[in-house]
Specification:
Blueprint lengths: L16 E6 L2 H16 L3 E6 L10 H6 L7 E2 L7 H19 L3 E5 L3 H12 L3 E5 L11 H12 L2 E4 L2 H9 L7 E3 L3 H13 L14 E4 L3 H4 L2 H18 L3 E4 L2 H10 L8 E4 L4 H9 L3 E4 L2 H10 L3 E3 L7 H5 L3 E3 L4 H12 L14 H11 L1
Parallel strand pairs: 1-2, 1-4, 2-3, 4-5, 5-6, 6-7, 8-9, 8-11, 9-10, 11-12, 12-13
Helix pairs in contact: 1-7, 1-15, 3-4, 4-5, 7-11, 9-14
Bound molecules: uridine-diphosphate-N-acetylglucosamine and uridine-5'-diphosphate.
């Protein structure tokens, strides 16, 4: 059993300083409710942005759309090999943290930026809070799996989304006193943005359409020509069978690989989009008949928005989405994808979201104050 909110007394007037370290699109989105909570509660905080993601449509668009403050520090690391990126983020953060002297460092998720932030904090004796702790795909070929395991094992507070991750951490020997089961900040982020969609008439046309939504960016899918071609072929056949176009906002990694392999997408099937802003993405998800993805965050959002999802991977670190009937993990085998499509299109989405009520960021800030 993880600690529950309410077990610890509410503390008042506690002074603390938090450093929020982030670097990629999903971290900006999932940290946004924490940042808002820090502002609302007048907490002394600052943001270090590694700039692991830096293209306007992977970075600035989210700060603008979500009304987030400009990061106090931008490390400008950009794209580089994993080890180099991690050590550069650590080196550049060191002097900032030594002079700012925060009490806590908060990181969210499993990217290279997350591991770098947690490692430098731990080396400097600064307490680490890991948001979305305890996720495991048990797929060691994913860099994210190494990042999250290492981050969990050096963190002082581990904020798990559900009991599944709490149990994983307990089995790995992490002390119960460090683990708090709080839900996932993605629910807070979705709740805060979904109502804005109704005020944006430019997305209204999606409500009248029947379409599929595709996103893919995992190296195992897009850095391998055969796998990327398989995804394109499968979605082409499924689109033709159901007569639904496939909206496809393309991640920069994927665009780079499509260009490298010289793979062409049929414009009668694929509605190709650049990476889109958060409101447009939520509108695309909410109105889709079915979502095909290898994204972690999109598996969660599909579940929260009650849109069925097919995960184009051999595993998922979000098994609760499968358990509630919101997600089927198919891998890249066409007959599996087709069977899952038939199942999902016949399903009435009535599952309950397992990721919390949208108060995760409030809980995280309160627990941090209490510790
Ligand atoms: C990273 C994370 C992944 C997360 C994803 C979210 C790691 C190991 N991977 O993967 O966990 O799911 O972000 O999207 O931390 N590029 C641009 N512009 C950008 C960013 C990237 O053009 O703003 C291109 C570059 O060619 C770069 C490539 O995308 O080499 C990959 O970027 P990188 O940050 O290394 O990995 P992601 O695939 O984005
Ligand atoms: N997203 C977005 N625009 C896009 C694609 C994704 O705003 O074109 C959002 C999506 O809604 C989710 C997050 O980005 O909140 C997921 O990021 P991504 O798939 O890049 O990473 P992952 O979650 O797999 O780490």
């Amino acid at each position: 059993m993880a600690n529950k909110m309410g077990a610890t007394p509410i503390s008042k007037g506690i002074k603390m300083k938090i450093a929020i370290i982030l670097g990629t699109r999903p971290e900006i989105i999932k940290m946004s409710p924490i940042i808002r909570e820090c502002i609302d509660q007048n907490i002394d905080f600052f943001i270090i942005h590694s700039n692991q993601h830096y293209s306007q449509e992977m970075d600035k668009i989210f700060f603008d759309e979500l009304s987030l403050p400009i990061p106090k520090y931008n490390l400008n690391v950009g794209s580089k090999p994993r080890e180099e990126m991690i050590s550069q983020i650590e080196d550049l953060s060191r002097s900032i943290l030594e002079s700012e002297k925060p009490d806590w460092i908060m990181v969210q998720g499993d990217t290279n930026t997350v591991l770098a932030g947690a490692q430098i904090a731990s080396k400097l004796g600064i307490k680490v809070g890991h948001i979305e702790a305890g996720l495991r795909s048990y797929d060691q070929s994913m860099p994210e799996e190494t990042n999250r395991i290492k981050t969990d094992h050096i963190s002082n507070l581990l904020f798990t989304p559900t009991a599944i991750q709490t149990n994983i951490l307990l089995k790995e020997g992490i002390g119960q006193e460090k683990i708090y089961e709080v839900g996932n900040t993605i629910v807070d982020a979705v709740n805060q943005s979904i109502k804005l969609i109704e005020t944006h008439t430019e997305f209204d046309h999606l409500k009248k359409k029947k379409y599929f939504l595709l996103t893919t960016h995992r190296p195992s899918n897009v850095d391998n020509q055969k796998n990327l071609q398989n995804i394109i072929n499968s979605l082409t056949k499924i689109s033709e069978k159901y007569k639904h176009p496939v909206y496809f906002p393309i991640h920069p990694r994927t665009q780079k690989q499509l260009d490298l392999f010289n793979l062409k997408l049929d414009s009668k099937i694929f509605k190709i989009l650049p990476p889109v802003g958060y409101l447009e993405m939520l509108a695309l998800e909410k109105n889709a008949q079915l979502i095909f993805t290898d994204s972690g965050g999109i598996q969660e959002e599909a579940c929260i928005l009650r849109v069925p999802c097919i995960t184009l991977r051999d595993n998922t670190e979000r098994p609760e989405t499968v358990d509630v009937g919101a997600n089927i993990v198919t891998g890249l085998n066409y007959s599996n994808i087709l069977k899952a499509t038939q199942t999902m299109l016949a399903t009435k989405p009535s599952w309950t979201n397992p990721f919390g009520n949208g108060d995760t960021s409030k809980k995280i800030i309160q627990i941090t104050k209490n510790n």
